[in-house]
Amino acid sequence: MYLSLLDIPNVCLSPPTPRLCTCEDYTRQSHIPYNHLFMSGLEDLRAKYEAAGQSHVFTYWDQLSADEKAAFERQLRGIDPARLNAMVKQALDADEAARHEQNAKVEPPPTESQVSTVGDEAKSNYYYEIGMKAIAAGQVGVLLLAGGQGTRLGSSAPKGCYNIQLPSGKSLFQIQAERIAKLQELAANYGRKAGVVVPWYIMTSGPTREPTESFFREHGFFGLDPANVVFFEQGTLPCISNEGKIMLDERGKVATAPDGNGGLYAALRVPVRDGEPSVLDDLQRRGIKYLHAYGVDNCLVKVGDPVFMGVCVDKNVATGVKVVKKTDPAESVGVVARKNGAFSVVEYSEIPPSLSEARDSNGELLFRAANIANHFYTTDFLMKDVPAFESKMAYHIARKKIPSIDLSSGERVKPSTPNGIKMELFIFDVFPFCADLAIHEVERKEEFSPLKNASGTASDNPETSRRDLLAQQRRWLEKAGATVANGADVELSPKVTYGGEGLQNVAGRTFDQTKNIESL
Ligand code: UTP
Q1: CA distance linking residue 308 with residue 319, whole number of Å
Q2: How far is the CA of 204 from the centre of ligand 1 (A)?
Q3: Could you say which of 31, 135, 270, 302 would form a disulfide bridge with 187 (CB–CB 3.0 to 4.6 Å)?
Q4: CB 421 within 8 Å of CB 302
Q5: Residue 294 backbone zone (phi > 0: left; psi -120 to 50: alpha; other: beta)
Q6: pLDDT tens digits, one per residue of 117-141
Protein backbone atom coordinates (compact mmCIF):
# COMPACT_ATOMS: atom_id res chain seq x y z
CA MET A 1 0.00 0.00 0.00
CA TYR A 2 1.26 3.47 -0.85
CA LEU A 3 1.63 5.85 2.04
CA SER A 4 1.88 9.56 1.79
CA LEU A 5 4.21 10.92 4.38
CA LEU A 6 1.44 12.87 5.91
CA ASP A 7 0.41 9.49 7.20
CA ILE A 8 3.78 9.09 8.83
CA PRO A 9 3.78 11.50 11.72
CA ASN A 10 7.40 11.25 12.65
CA VAL A 11 8.20 12.69 9.25
CA CYS A 12 5.53 15.22 8.70
CA LEU A 13 5.54 16.78 12.08
CA SER A 14 8.65 15.88 13.86
CA PRO A 15 11.73 16.73 11.92
CA PRO A 16 12.42 18.20 15.27
CA THR A 17 11.41 15.72 17.97
CA PRO A 18 8.93 13.53 19.49
CA ARG A 19 7.76 10.63 17.47
CA LEU A 20 4.01 10.31 17.60
CA CYS A 21 3.93 6.81 16.26
CA THR A 22 6.18 4.98 13.89
CA CYS A 23 5.59 4.02 10.33
CA GLU A 24 5.77 0.44 11.49
CA ASP A 25 2.90 1.08 13.92
CA TYR A 26 0.92 2.56 11.12
CA THR A 27 1.57 -0.32 8.76
CA ARG A 28 0.40 -2.76 11.37
CA GLN A 29 -2.71 -0.75 12.01
CA SER A 30 -3.55 -0.42 8.34
CA HIS A 31 -4.44 -4.11 8.17
CA ILE A 32 -7.18 -3.63 10.73
CA PRO A 33 -10.60 -2.58 9.41
CA TYR A 34 -11.08 1.11 9.93
CA ASN A 35 -14.23 0.88 12.04
CA HIS A 36 -12.57 -1.44 14.57
CA LEU A 37 -9.44 0.57 14.70
CA PHE A 38 -10.62 4.10 15.22
CA MET A 39 -14.18 4.08 16.50
CA SER A 40 -13.25 4.11 20.13
CA GLY A 41 -10.62 6.82 19.76
CA LEU A 42 -12.54 9.42 17.81
CA GLU A 43 -13.56 11.37 20.89
CA ASP A 44 -9.95 11.49 22.03
CA LEU A 45 -8.95 12.78 18.66
CA ARG A 46 -11.59 15.50 18.72
CA ALA A 47 -10.48 16.46 22.22
CA LYS A 48 -6.89 16.84 21.06
CA TYR A 49 -7.91 19.23 18.30
CA GLU A 50 -10.31 21.03 20.64
CA ALA A 51 -7.55 21.57 23.20
CA ALA A 52 -5.30 23.02 20.51
CA GLY A 53 -8.00 25.40 19.22
CA GLN A 54 -8.25 23.49 15.95
CA SER A 55 -11.60 21.71 16.33
CA HIS A 56 -12.95 23.45 13.18
CA VAL A 57 -11.39 20.62 11.16
CA PHE A 58 -14.41 18.52 12.21
CA THR A 59 -16.94 21.07 10.88
CA TYR A 60 -18.08 18.82 8.01
CA TRP A 61 -17.51 15.46 9.67
CA ASP A 62 -21.15 14.43 9.62
CA GLN A 63 -21.39 15.09 5.88
CA LEU A 64 -18.54 12.73 4.97
CA SER A 65 -18.99 9.19 3.66
CA ALA A 66 -17.52 6.28 5.63
CA ASP A 67 -14.53 6.11 3.28
CA GLU A 68 -13.94 9.85 3.49
CA LYS A 69 -14.13 9.67 7.28
CA ALA A 70 -11.60 6.86 7.30
CA ALA A 71 -9.12 8.76 5.13
CA PHE A 72 -9.63 12.02 7.00
CA GLU A 73 -9.29 10.43 10.41
CA ARG A 74 -6.07 8.78 9.30
CA GLN A 75 -4.76 12.14 8.13
CA LEU A 76 -5.78 13.89 11.36
CA ARG A 77 -4.12 11.21 13.45
CA GLY A 78 -0.90 11.93 11.61
CA ILE A 79 -0.91 15.47 12.94
CA ASP A 80 -0.21 16.53 16.49
CA PRO A 81 -2.16 19.82 16.59
CA ALA A 82 -0.49 21.10 19.76
CA ARG A 83 2.94 20.43 18.34
CA LEU A 84 1.88 22.01 15.06
CA ASN A 85 0.82 25.16 16.91
CA ALA A 86 4.22 25.29 18.59
CA MET A 87 6.00 24.87 15.25
CA VAL A 88 3.95 27.64 13.69
CA LYS A 89 4.74 29.94 16.60
CA GLN A 90 8.46 29.13 16.37
CA ALA A 91 8.40 29.81 12.62
CA LEU A 92 6.45 33.08 12.95
CA ASP A 93 8.69 34.30 15.77
CA ALA A 94 11.82 33.52 13.75
CA ASP A 95 10.32 35.27 10.72
CA GLU A 96 9.46 38.33 12.76
CA ALA A 97 12.89 38.42 14.38
CA ALA A 98 14.60 38.13 10.99
CA ARG A 99 12.59 41.01 9.59
CA HIS A 100 13.55 43.26 12.46
CA GLU A 101 17.10 42.08 12.73
CA GLN A 102 19.23 45.14 12.13
CA ASN A 103 22.49 44.38 13.74
CA ALA A 104 23.33 40.92 12.45
CA LYS A 105 27.05 40.60 12.10
CA VAL A 106 27.75 39.34 8.61
CA GLU A 107 31.30 38.36 7.68
CA PRO A 108 32.91 36.54 4.77
CA PRO A 109 33.66 32.88 5.49
CA PRO A 110 37.07 32.17 7.00
CA THR A 111 39.86 31.73 4.44
CA GLU A 112 40.80 28.34 5.86
CA SER A 113 37.34 26.97 4.99
CA GLN A 114 37.68 27.90 1.32
CA VAL A 115 39.24 25.93 -1.51
CA SER A 116 39.15 27.13 -5.10
CA THR A 117 40.03 24.79 -7.92
CA VAL A 118 39.11 27.31 -10.60
CA GLY A 119 41.77 27.30 -13.31
CA ASP A 120 44.09 25.10 -11.24
CA GLU A 121 44.43 21.73 -12.89
CA ALA A 122 47.11 20.45 -10.54
CA LYS A 123 44.94 21.18 -7.51
CA SER A 124 41.89 19.62 -9.17
CA ASN A 125 43.90 16.50 -9.95
CA TYR A 126 45.09 16.26 -6.36
CA TYR A 127 41.53 16.30 -5.01
CA TYR A 128 40.24 14.12 -7.87
CA GLU A 129 42.59 11.34 -6.75
CA ILE A 130 41.32 11.52 -3.17
CA GLY A 131 37.69 11.55 -4.27
CA MET A 132 38.19 8.74 -6.79
CA LYS A 133 39.79 6.57 -4.15
CA ALA A 134 36.68 6.94 -1.97
CA ILE A 135 34.35 6.29 -4.91
CA ALA A 136 36.31 3.22 -6.00
CA ALA A 137 36.14 1.94 -2.42
CA GLY A 138 32.33 2.13 -2.63
CA GLN A 139 32.13 4.86 0.00
CA VAL A 140 30.28 7.53 -2.00
CA GLY A 141 26.56 7.88 -2.72
CA VAL A 142 24.60 10.63 -4.43
CA LEU A 143 21.41 12.20 -3.26
CA LEU A 144 19.09 14.02 -5.60
CA LEU A 145 16.62 16.66 -4.39
CA ALA A 146 13.63 16.14 -6.66
CA GLY A 147 10.69 17.03 -4.45
CA GLY A 148 10.13 20.53 -5.82
CA GLN A 149 7.03 21.33 -7.81
CA GLY A 150 8.80 23.48 -10.39
CA THR A 151 6.09 26.11 -10.28
CA ARG A 152 8.10 28.69 -12.19
CA LEU A 153 8.99 26.26 -14.98
CA GLY A 154 5.33 25.43 -15.31
CA SER A 155 5.71 21.85 -16.49
CA SER A 156 3.16 19.36 -15.17
CA ALA A 157 5.77 16.56 -14.99
CA PRO A 158 8.57 16.53 -12.39
CA LYS A 159 11.43 18.81 -13.44
CA GLY A 160 13.84 15.91 -13.93
CA CYS A 161 11.67 14.64 -16.82
CA TYR A 162 12.21 17.90 -18.67
CA ASN A 163 13.74 17.78 -22.13
CA ILE A 164 15.91 20.87 -22.66
CA GLN A 165 15.98 20.18 -26.42
CA LEU A 166 19.46 18.80 -26.69
CA PRO A 167 20.19 16.95 -29.94
CA SER A 168 19.70 13.67 -28.02
CA GLY A 169 16.38 14.76 -26.51
CA LYS A 170 17.59 13.43 -23.14
CA SER A 171 15.82 14.44 -19.96
CA LEU A 172 17.67 15.86 -16.96
CA PHE A 173 17.16 12.53 -15.16
CA GLN A 174 18.76 10.64 -18.05
CA ILE A 175 21.78 12.95 -18.18
CA GLN A 176 22.33 12.49 -14.45
CA ALA A 177 21.84 8.71 -14.60
CA GLU A 178 24.38 8.41 -17.40
CA ARG A 179 26.88 10.52 -15.47
CA ILE A 180 26.54 8.14 -12.54
CA ALA A 181 27.09 5.16 -14.84
CA LYS A 182 30.20 6.82 -16.26
CA LEU A 183 31.49 7.70 -12.81
CA GLN A 184 31.10 4.06 -11.76
CA GLU A 185 33.08 3.02 -14.85
CA LEU A 186 35.84 5.58 -14.20
CA ALA A 187 36.06 4.52 -10.55
CA ALA A 188 36.19 0.85 -11.50
CA ASN A 189 39.08 1.59 -13.87
CA TYR A 190 40.78 3.71 -11.23
CA GLY A 191 40.44 1.05 -8.57
CA ARG A 192 41.15 -1.77 -11.06
CA LYS A 193 38.09 -3.65 -9.95
CA ALA A 194 34.70 -4.46 -11.41
CA GLY A 195 31.33 -3.49 -10.05
CA VAL A 196 31.86 -0.14 -8.34
CA VAL A 197 28.45 1.14 -7.26
CA VAL A 198 27.47 4.74 -6.58
CA PRO A 199 23.95 4.40 -5.19
CA TRP A 200 21.47 7.09 -6.16
CA TYR A 201 19.01 8.27 -3.50
CA ILE A 202 16.19 10.26 -5.04
CA MET A 203 14.10 12.41 -2.74
CA THR A 204 10.62 12.99 -4.14
CA SER A 205 7.52 14.52 -2.58
CA GLY A 206 3.80 13.71 -2.58
CA PRO A 207 3.29 15.37 -5.99
CA THR A 208 6.49 14.05 -7.64
CA ARG A 209 6.96 10.51 -6.32
CA GLU A 210 4.65 8.51 -8.54
CA PRO A 211 5.45 10.31 -11.82
CA THR A 212 9.18 10.15 -11.05
CA GLU A 213 9.15 6.42 -10.33
CA SER A 214 7.02 5.76 -13.42
CA PHE A 215 9.40 7.76 -15.59
CA PHE A 216 12.35 5.70 -14.39
CA ARG A 217 10.49 2.43 -14.96
CA GLU A 218 9.38 3.49 -18.45
CA HIS A 219 13.00 4.28 -19.33
CA GLY A 220 14.53 1.15 -17.84
CA PHE A 221 16.25 3.21 -15.13
CA PHE A 222 18.41 4.60 -17.95
CA GLY A 223 20.60 1.52 -17.77
CA LEU A 224 21.30 1.69 -14.04
CA ASP A 225 20.60 -1.28 -11.79
CA PRO A 226 17.23 -0.52 -10.09
CA ALA A 227 18.64 -2.05 -6.90
CA ASN A 228 20.96 0.95 -6.68
CA VAL A 229 18.32 3.61 -7.24
CA VAL A 230 16.40 4.32 -4.04
CA PHE A 231 13.34 6.56 -4.11
CA PHE A 232 12.12 8.12 -0.92
CA GLU A 233 9.75 10.89 -0.03
CA GLN A 234 10.00 14.10 1.94
CA GLY A 235 7.26 15.03 4.38
CA THR A 236 4.33 17.36 4.06
CA LEU A 237 2.98 19.89 6.54
CA PRO A 238 -0.48 21.36 7.00
CA CYS A 239 -1.08 24.82 5.56
CA ILE A 240 -2.08 27.38 8.18
CA SER A 241 -4.46 30.30 7.71
CA ASN A 242 -3.48 33.85 8.54
CA GLU A 243 -5.46 33.31 11.75
CA GLY A 244 -3.34 30.32 12.74
CA LYS A 245 -5.92 27.67 11.83
CA ILE A 246 -5.30 24.41 9.98
CA MET A 247 -6.70 24.88 6.46
CA LEU A 248 -8.97 22.40 4.73
CA ASP A 249 -8.34 21.53 1.11
CA GLU A 250 -11.65 19.66 1.00
CA ARG A 251 -14.32 19.17 3.63
CA GLY A 252 -12.59 16.00 4.68
CA LYS A 253 -8.98 16.78 3.86
CA VAL A 254 -6.35 19.04 5.40
CA ALA A 255 -4.51 21.30 2.93
CA THR A 256 -0.84 20.33 2.91
CA ALA A 257 2.41 21.30 1.21
CA PRO A 258 5.86 19.68 0.95
CA ASP A 259 8.14 20.70 3.82
CA GLY A 260 10.95 22.13 1.68
CA ASN A 261 14.20 20.59 0.52
CA GLY A 262 15.41 20.69 4.14
CA GLY A 263 12.74 18.04 4.77
CA LEU A 264 15.52 15.79 3.55
CA TYR A 265 17.01 15.33 7.01
CA ALA A 266 13.88 13.85 8.55
CA ALA A 267 12.97 11.89 5.44
CA LEU A 268 16.28 10.02 5.54
CA ARG A 269 15.15 8.25 8.70
CA VAL A 270 11.81 6.93 7.47
CA PRO A 271 11.31 3.59 5.66
CA VAL A 272 11.53 4.34 1.95
CA ARG A 273 8.28 2.40 1.62
CA ASP A 274 6.27 0.00 3.78
CA GLY A 275 8.47 -2.58 5.42
CA GLU A 276 11.69 -1.37 3.81
CA PRO A 277 14.73 0.22 5.44
CA SER A 278 15.30 3.96 5.59
CA VAL A 279 17.93 5.73 3.51
CA LEU A 280 20.14 5.94 6.60
CA ASP A 281 19.82 2.18 7.06
CA ASP A 282 20.73 1.68 3.42
CA LEU A 283 23.77 3.95 3.69
CA GLN A 284 25.01 1.92 6.62
CA ARG A 285 24.32 -1.41 4.96
CA ARG A 286 26.32 -0.39 1.91
CA GLY A 287 29.14 1.23 3.90
CA ILE A 288 28.59 4.64 2.32
CA LYS A 289 30.59 7.24 4.22
CA TYR A 290 30.12 10.32 2.02
CA LEU A 291 27.18 11.78 0.15
CA HIS A 292 26.90 14.36 -2.59
CA ALA A 293 23.45 16.03 -2.51
CA TYR A 294 22.34 18.24 -5.39
CA GLY A 295 19.33 19.86 -7.04
CA VAL A 296 17.60 18.27 -10.00
CA ASP A 297 17.53 21.38 -12.16
CA ASN A 298 21.20 21.94 -12.97
CA CYS A 299 22.07 20.35 -16.32
CA LEU A 300 25.79 20.85 -15.67
CA VAL A 301 25.84 19.09 -12.29
CA LYS A 302 28.83 16.82 -11.77
CA VAL A 303 26.98 14.05 -10.01
CA GLY A 304 29.22 12.51 -7.33
CA ASP A 305 32.02 14.91 -8.34
CA PRO A 306 35.33 13.30 -7.31
CA VAL A 307 37.00 16.71 -6.93
CA PHE A 308 34.33 18.00 -4.52
CA MET A 309 34.39 14.72 -2.61
CA GLY A 310 38.18 14.95 -2.48
CA VAL A 311 38.15 18.52 -1.11
CA CYS A 312 35.78 17.55 1.69
CA VAL A 313 37.50 14.27 2.53
CA ASP A 314 40.89 15.97 2.52
CA LYS A 315 39.65 18.71 4.84
CA ASN A 316 38.12 16.06 7.08
CA VAL A 317 34.84 17.96 7.43
CA ALA A 318 31.35 16.64 8.12
CA THR A 319 29.73 19.06 5.67
CA GLY A 320 30.75 20.89 2.55
CA VAL A 321 29.20 23.16 -0.02
CA LYS A 322 30.08 23.88 -3.62
CA VAL A 323 29.90 27.51 -4.70
CA VAL A 324 30.50 29.60 -7.80
CA LYS A 325 31.87 33.10 -7.93
CA LYS A 326 29.36 35.90 -7.66
CA THR A 327 30.76 38.67 -9.84
CA ASP A 328 27.99 41.25 -9.87
CA PRO A 329 27.22 42.66 -6.41
CA ALA A 330 23.57 43.07 -7.48
CA GLU A 331 23.05 39.43 -8.47
CA SER A 332 20.25 38.20 -6.23
CA VAL A 333 21.81 34.98 -5.07
CA GLY A 334 22.42 33.64 -1.57
CA VAL A 335 26.07 33.57 -0.53
CA VAL A 336 27.82 31.36 1.99
CA ALA A 337 29.05 33.58 4.80
CA ARG A 338 29.24 33.84 8.59
CA LYS A 339 26.25 35.39 10.30
CA ASN A 340 26.53 36.17 13.99
CA GLY A 341 29.53 33.89 14.11
CA ALA A 342 27.93 30.86 12.42
CA PHE A 343 28.04 29.53 8.86
CA SER A 344 24.98 30.57 6.93
CA VAL A 345 23.57 31.21 3.49
CA VAL A 346 22.90 34.91 3.55
CA GLU A 347 20.41 36.32 1.10
CA TYR A 348 21.28 39.26 -1.09
CA SER A 349 18.73 41.38 0.77
CA GLU A 350 20.41 40.71 4.12
CA ILE A 351 23.71 42.30 3.13
CA PRO A 352 23.94 46.11 3.01
CA PRO A 353 25.34 47.49 -0.29
CA SER A 354 28.48 48.66 1.52
CA LEU A 355 29.29 45.00 2.18
CA SER A 356 27.89 43.36 -0.94
CA GLU A 357 30.03 45.71 -3.05
CA ALA A 358 33.16 45.41 -0.88
CA ARG A 359 36.17 43.76 -2.51
CA ASP A 360 39.29 42.08 -1.18
CA SER A 361 42.90 42.94 -2.12
CA ASN A 362 42.57 40.85 -5.32
CA GLY A 363 39.60 42.89 -6.46
CA GLU A 364 37.18 40.00 -5.81
CA LEU A 365 33.88 40.52 -4.02
CA LEU A 366 34.25 39.74 -0.33
CA PHE A 367 30.85 38.03 -0.38
CA ARG A 368 31.20 36.01 -3.55
CA ALA A 369 30.55 32.39 -2.55
CA ALA A 370 27.26 31.93 -4.42
CA ASN A 371 25.35 28.90 -3.22
CA ILE A 372 24.38 26.39 -5.96
CA ALA A 373 22.66 23.66 -3.90
CA ASN A 374 25.52 21.17 -3.97
CA HIS A 375 26.29 19.72 -0.58
CA PHE A 376 28.59 17.17 0.97
CA TYR A 377 27.73 15.19 4.10
CA THR A 378 29.29 12.38 5.99
CA THR A 379 26.86 9.64 6.89
CA ASP A 380 27.90 10.16 10.51
CA PHE A 381 26.77 13.77 10.37
CA LEU A 382 23.34 12.80 9.07
CA MET A 383 22.94 10.02 11.60
CA LYS A 384 24.37 11.52 14.75
CA ASP A 385 24.80 15.28 14.49
CA VAL A 386 21.56 16.34 12.82
CA PRO A 387 19.17 14.80 15.38
CA ALA A 388 21.02 16.66 18.15
CA PHE A 389 20.24 20.14 16.82
CA GLU A 390 17.24 19.55 14.57
CA SER A 391 14.63 20.94 16.93
CA LYS A 392 16.40 24.31 16.86
CA MET A 393 15.91 24.74 13.11
CA ALA A 394 12.88 27.02 12.69
CA TYR A 395 10.71 26.57 9.61
CA HIS A 396 10.64 29.38 7.09
CA ILE A 397 7.34 30.98 6.33
CA ALA A 398 6.00 31.44 2.81
CA ARG A 399 2.82 33.49 2.58
CA LYS A 400 0.76 32.03 -0.25
CA LYS A 401 -2.61 32.01 -1.96
CA ILE A 402 -3.88 28.65 -0.79
CA PRO A 403 -7.12 27.25 -2.26
CA SER A 404 -9.18 26.04 0.68
CA ILE A 405 -12.62 25.58 2.19
CA ASP A 406 -14.19 28.81 3.40
CA LEU A 407 -15.67 27.82 6.76
CA SER A 408 -18.45 30.39 6.55
CA SER A 409 -19.86 29.10 3.25
CA GLY A 410 -18.45 25.57 3.11
CA GLU A 411 -17.24 26.29 -0.44
CA ARG A 412 -13.72 25.85 -1.79
CA VAL A 413 -12.27 29.24 -2.71
CA LYS A 414 -9.24 30.30 -4.72
CA PRO A 415 -8.01 33.49 -3.01
CA SER A 416 -6.57 36.44 -4.91
CA THR A 417 -4.32 37.53 -2.04
CA PRO A 418 -2.20 35.44 0.33
CA ASN A 419 -4.52 33.80 2.84
CA GLY A 420 -2.17 31.48 4.64
CA ILE A 421 1.32 30.15 5.18
CA LYS A 422 3.31 27.17 4.08
CA MET A 423 6.25 26.11 6.22
CA GLU A 424 9.54 24.93 4.78
CA LEU A 425 13.03 24.00 5.87
CA PHE A 426 15.92 24.73 3.52
CA ILE A 427 18.67 22.25 2.96
CA PHE A 428 21.27 24.77 4.14
CA ASP A 429 19.50 25.38 7.47
CA VAL A 430 21.98 22.94 9.00
CA PHE A 431 24.94 25.24 8.27
CA PRO A 432 24.67 27.37 11.45
CA PHE A 433 25.10 24.16 13.44
CA CYS A 434 28.24 23.05 11.60
CA ALA A 435 31.50 23.70 13.40
CA ASP A 436 33.32 23.27 10.12
CA LEU A 437 32.28 23.64 6.51
CA ALA A 438 34.39 23.13 3.40
CA ILE A 439 33.54 25.73 0.77
CA HIS A 440 34.65 24.57 -2.66
CA GLU A 441 34.66 27.19 -5.40
CA VAL A 442 34.24 25.91 -8.94
CA GLU A 443 33.87 27.46 -12.39
CA ARG A 444 30.30 28.55 -13.03
CA LYS A 445 30.31 27.89 -16.76
CA GLU A 446 31.47 24.32 -16.14
CA GLU A 447 29.14 23.45 -13.30
CA PHE A 448 26.06 25.59 -12.92
CA SER A 449 23.16 26.46 -15.18
CA PRO A 450 19.88 26.07 -13.33
CA LEU A 451 16.51 25.46 -14.95
CA LYS A 452 14.08 27.60 -12.98
CA ASN A 453 11.90 29.53 -15.41
CA ALA A 454 9.70 28.77 -18.39
CA SER A 455 10.84 28.96 -21.97
CA GLY A 456 11.06 32.52 -23.29
CA THR A 457 11.81 34.15 -19.91
CA ALA A 458 14.92 36.27 -19.29
CA SER A 459 17.15 33.79 -17.48
CA ASP A 460 17.65 30.28 -16.07
CA ASN A 461 15.30 28.72 -18.60
CA PRO A 462 15.39 25.74 -21.02
CA GLU A 463 17.21 27.83 -23.64
CA THR A 464 20.00 28.89 -21.27
CA SER A 465 20.36 25.30 -20.01
CA ARG A 466 20.73 23.97 -23.55
CA ARG A 467 23.09 26.80 -24.54
CA ASP A 468 25.35 26.34 -21.50
CA LEU A 469 25.61 22.57 -21.82
CA LEU A 470 26.40 22.67 -25.52
CA ALA A 471 28.93 25.50 -25.01
CA GLN A 472 30.67 23.36 -22.40
CA GLN A 473 30.85 20.41 -24.76
CA ARG A 474 32.23 22.61 -27.53
CA ARG A 475 34.98 23.75 -25.14
CA TRP A 476 35.81 20.14 -24.28
CA LEU A 477 36.00 19.15 -27.94
CA GLU A 478 38.14 22.13 -28.87
CA LYS A 479 40.45 21.56 -25.93
CA ALA A 480 40.94 17.99 -27.16
CA GLY A 481 41.98 19.30 -30.59
CA ALA A 482 38.73 19.10 -32.58
CA THR A 483 37.16 21.82 -34.65
CA VAL A 484 33.48 22.53 -34.19
CA ALA A 485 31.92 24.58 -36.98
CA ASN A 486 29.95 27.68 -36.14
CA GLY A 487 26.33 26.77 -35.63
CA ALA A 488 27.06 23.07 -35.08
CA ASP A 489 25.75 21.96 -31.68
CA VAL A 490 27.62 18.84 -30.70
CA GLU A 491 26.44 16.94 -27.65
CA LEU A 492 28.69 14.43 -25.93
CA SER A 493 26.92 11.64 -24.14
CA PRO A 494 28.07 11.08 -20.54
CA LYS A 495 28.82 7.58 -21.84
CA VAL A 496 31.65 9.21 -23.79
CA THR A 497 32.95 11.59 -21.15
CA TYR A 498 32.11 12.58 -17.57
CA GLY A 499 34.06 15.83 -17.35
CA GLY A 500 35.94 16.27 -20.63
CA GLU A 501 38.32 13.33 -20.16
CA GLY A 502 38.93 10.55 -22.71
CA LEU A 503 38.49 12.64 -25.85
CA GLN A 504 41.86 11.87 -27.47
CA ASN A 505 40.11 10.36 -30.51
CA VAL A 506 38.64 13.67 -31.57
CA ALA A 507 41.97 15.43 -32.09
CA GLY A 508 42.15 16.77 -35.63
CA ARG A 509 38.50 15.99 -36.41
CA THR A 510 35.99 18.54 -37.61
CA PHE A 511 32.37 18.50 -36.50
CA ASP A 512 30.22 20.55 -38.83
CA GLN A 513 26.76 19.26 -37.98
CA THR A 514 24.52 19.35 -34.97
CA LYS A 515 24.48 15.90 -33.43
CA ASN A 516 24.70 13.76 -30.36
CA ILE A 517 27.72 11.50 -29.95
CA GLU A 518 27.03 8.31 -28.00
CA SER A 519 30.39 6.64 -28.63
CA LEU A 520 33.76 7.58 -30.08
P1 UTP B 1 13.56 25.32 -5.93
O2 UTP B 1 13.60 26.09 -4.68
O3 UTP B 1 14.16 25.94 -7.12
O4 UTP B 1 12.06 24.89 -6.19
O5 UTP B 1 14.25 23.93 -5.64
P6 UTP B 1 11.39 24.17 -7.42
O7 UTP B 1 10.28 23.36 -6.90
O8 UTP B 1 12.38 23.42 -8.25
O9 UTP B 1 10.83 25.36 -8.30
P10 UTP B 1 9.71 26.47 -7.94
O11 UTP B 1 10.30 27.31 -6.84
O12 UTP B 1 8.46 25.76 -7.53
O13 UTP B 1 9.57 27.21 -9.24
C14 UTP B 1 15.65 23.71 -5.56
C15 UTP B 1 15.85 22.20 -5.44
O16 UTP B 1 15.21 21.71 -4.26
C17 UTP B 1 14.27 20.70 -4.59
C18 UTP B 1 13.90 20.94 -6.04
O19 UTP B 1 13.40 19.76 -6.63
C20 UTP B 1 15.22 21.41 -6.62
O21 UTP B 1 16.05 20.32 -6.90
N22 UTP B 1 13.12 20.79 -3.67
C23 UTP B 1 12.47 21.96 -3.51
C24 UTP B 1 12.74 19.67 -2.99
O25 UTP B 1 13.34 18.58 -3.16
N26 UTP B 1 11.68 19.76 -2.13
C27 UTP B 1 11.00 20.91 -1.94
O28 UTP B 1 10.03 20.92 -1.14
C29 UTP B 1 11.40 22.05 -2.64
Answers
A1: 11
A2: 10
A3: 135
A4: no
A5: beta
A6: 999 999 999 999 999 999 999 999 9
